[in-house]
Specification:
The protein is of the alpha/beta class and 504 residues long. The chain is built from 11 helices and 31 strands.
Length: 504
C-alpha cells in the first residue's frame, strides 16, 4: 500500500428501508436504528463508519475524512449520531432529493477529486471505499482484511481502470440478492475476475448457483479510484455524469458543529436520472476496458433487507426467538418480537414477526416478511402519515411526541436540547398552551420574552408570532396543547430558523 495515496471512506446513507416498517420510516430510516451487530448500542450507520475507518488502523494508511452522502432532511440525524463517535472526521454531501446510488457516488467522487486539488491532481488520485449505511457484519477482522485486499487490487492497476467489489460467500439459496459469477483462479490479493452479474433469481436458480460454487452475493460494497468511477460513468451514462457535474459545480457549502456541509444545486440535481451504481456502470464493465475484480468476504454479512434477516442475525434464545423490549412469550419459537413501549405477550406462535411501535403494530409470517413493502404501498396510496413519520418525531432541536388528539385538539410532549430553539413562527389555524414540566423555557410570545420554569405555563393565541428556546444546561420538556380548526404540521410560517427552514 502506497502511504501517499489518499484513501477515503464513502458512506451512502440515502435509503428509506421500507421493508422494515413500522420501525423504519422515511423520516427515521433503518440505517439510524439500533438493530443488530456486534455493538448493540450503535446504529447501522455508526457501525458502517467504524468499520470503514478501521481499515486504516495500524497500517500507516493515508485515510482521509469520511464522505457521507445523505438526504438534506436527515442531516441532523447524521450529526447527532456522529457526535457519539470519537475521532471521526466527516463531510456531509446533502442531496435535496434521493436519485439512487449512482448520482450519490458521483457526488462523492467529485468531492474526493476536489480534496486533492481538482481534476489536475492525478498524481494522488484518491481511492474510495464505498459502502451502504444499512448493513451489518459480525466478523470485523475478516471484513477489514478483505477491504485491504481490495485496496491493494485497485492500487496495483496503474491504468486506473480496475474496480474491486466484495462478494459475499452465500450460505443459502437467497432470492433477495443479486449474484456475481467469478472465473479463474485467485490473484496475488485473493481477487477473482468477474465474468458477469446476474439479477435476483428464483428459488430453483438460486439453488443451482449455490451448488455451482462460483456465484457469490453482491454486497454493494466497492473499492475504486475517484477518477475510475467518473471515467466509467462518463463512458456508460454520460447523462448522469453531465447533470451531476453541473449540480456539483453550482454547489454551496457551510459548516455546523465542526462538520462541513456541501449541497449540490437543488434544481439541477432534481433533474439527474435516478439509477443505481450496478445498473448505471458496474454490470456494464465485464468485457469492457474497465476491469471488475471480486474479493470474497465471509464475515457474517447481512443487508437487513427484511425482518427475516433481522431475525437471522439477532441473538436467539433457546427456542429460536429474538426478543427486544417488554415481551413475554410462552410455548413460542423462531419468532422476532420487538416492543417499543407496550407489553407484548405471545402464546403458542411460531415463525412470526411482531413489531410494536407507538402508532402501529406489524404481524407477519416470517417467510413473507419481504411483502411488508405491500403494506407501505397501501399506506402511501391512502396518504397516511404512518408511512413516513413515527408518533415520536426527531427534529434538529430535539423531538416531539403526539400523545393524544381528537376533533379540534392535539397534545404533544416536546423536548428541546440544551442551547437549542425552535423557529420564530406563527400558525393561521391554531392556538397553543405550553406547560413546562422540566427545565427552563425562554418563550417569545408576540412582543414579550418571558422565562418559565417547572409547573408554569403560557398561552399562544392563534396568529401570534412565537418561539420556544432552552437557555439551560439540561433538556427542556413541555406539554403543548393545540386547539383550532386545523392542526396539521404544514400550518407553520417560519420567520427565523437556526436550521435553514424559514419561509421568508
Amino acid at each position: 500500500m502506497d502511504k501517499a495515496t489518499l484513501v477515503i471512506p464513502v458512506i451512502l446513507c440515502g435509503g428509506s428501508g421500507t421493508r422494515l416498517w413500522p420501525l423504519s420510516r422515511s423520516g427515521f430510516p433503518k440505517q439510524f436504528l439500533v438493530l443488530s451487530g456486534d455493538d448493540s448500542s450503535q446504529s447501522l450507520f455508526q457501525q458502517a463508519i467504524q468499520r470503514m475507518n478501521a481499515v486504516g488502523a495500524g497500517q500507516g494508511m493515508n485515510l482521509g475524512s469520511t464522505l457521507i452522502v445523505t438526504n438534506e432532511e436527515h442531516r441532523f440525524l447524521v450529526l447527532d449520531q456522529l457526535r457519539e463517535l470519537r475521532d471521526v472526521r466527516a463531510t456531509l454531501l446533502l442531496e435535496p432529493v434521493g436519485r439512487n446510488t449512482a448520482p450519490a457516488l458521483s457526488l462523492a467522487a467529485f468531492a474526493a477529486v476536489d480534496l486533492v486539488g481538482g481534476a489536475a491532481a492525478t498524481e494522488n488520485d484518491p481511492i474510495l471505499l464505498i459502502t451502504p449505511a444499512d448493513q451489518t457484519v459480525k466478523n470485523q477482522t475478516a471484513f477489514v482484511r478483505a477491504l485491504r485486499e481490495s485496496v491493494s487490487v485497485v492500487e496495483a492497476d496503474q491504468s486506473k481502470q480496475t474496480i474491486a467489489i466484495l462478494g459475499i460467500t452465500p450460505t443459502a439459496p437467497e432470492t433477495g440478492y443479486g449474484y456475481i459469477k467469478r472465473q479463474g483462479l485467485p490473484g496475488e490479493n485473493q481477487e477473482y475476475a468477474v465474468e458477469k452479474f446476474v439479477e435476483k433469481p428464483d428459488v430453483k436458480t438460486a439453488q443451482s448457483y449455490l451448488a455451482d460454487g462460483s456465484y457469490l452475493w453482491n454486497s454493494g460494497m466497492f473499492v475504486l479510484r475517484a477518477s475510475t468511477w467518473l471515467s466509467a460513468l462518463k463512458e456508460f451514462r454520460p447523462d448522469i455524469f453531465s447533470v451531476t457535474e453541473a449540480a456539483w459545480l453550482s454547489r454551496s457549502s457551510d459548516h455546523s458543529d465542526r462538520t462541513h456541509f456541501i449541497r449540490p444545486d437543488s434544481e439541477i440535481f432534481k433533474t439527474v436520472p435516478s439509477e443505481s451504481i450496478d445498473y448505471a456502470v458496474i454490470e456494464k464493465c465485464p468485457g469492457s476496458k474497465f476491469s471488475v475484480k471480486m474479493v470474497e468476504l465471509s464475515a457474517g454479512w447481512s443487508d437487513l433487507g427484511a425482518w427475516d434477516a433481522v431475525w437471522q442475525v439477532g441473538k436467539q434464545d433457546e427456542s429460536g426467538n429474538v426478543i427486544s423490549g417488554d415481551v413475554i412469550v410462552s410455548n413460542s419459537k423462531n419468532s422476532l418480537i420487538h416492543s417499543s413501549g407496550r407489553l407484548i405477550s405471545a402464546v403458542g406462535v411460531e415463525d412470526l414477526i411482531i413489531i410494536e411501535t407507538a402508532d402501529a403494530v406489524l404481524v407477519a409470517d416470517r417467510k413473507n416478511s419481504q411483502d411488508v413493502k405491500n403494506v407501505v404501498s397501501q399506506l402511501e396510496a391512502q396518504k397516511r402519515e404512518e408511512k413516513n413519520l413515527h408518533r415520536k418525531v426527531a427534529r434538529p432541536w430535539g423531538w416531539y411526541d403526539s400523545v393524544d388528539e381528537g376533533e379540534r385538539f392535539k397534545v404533544k410532549r416536546i423536548q428541546v436540547k440544551s442551547g437549542a430553539s425552535l423557529s420564530l413562527q406563527m400558525h393561521h389555524h391554531r392556538a397553543e398552551h405550553w406547560i413546562v414540566v422540566k427545565g427552563v423555557a425562554e418563550i417569545t410570545n408576540g412582543d414579550q420574552v418571558i422565562t418559565l420554569t417547572e409547573n408554569q405555563s403560557t398561552y399562544i393565541p392563534q396568529g401570534q408570532t412565537h418561539r420556544l428556546a432552552n437557555p439551560g444546561k439540561t433538556p427542556l420538556e413541555i406539554i403543548e396543547v393545540q386547539s383550532g380548526s386545523y392542526l396539521g404540521e404544514d400550518d407553520i410560517v417560519r420567520f427565523e430558523d437556526s436550521y435553514g427552514r424559514s419561509n421568508s
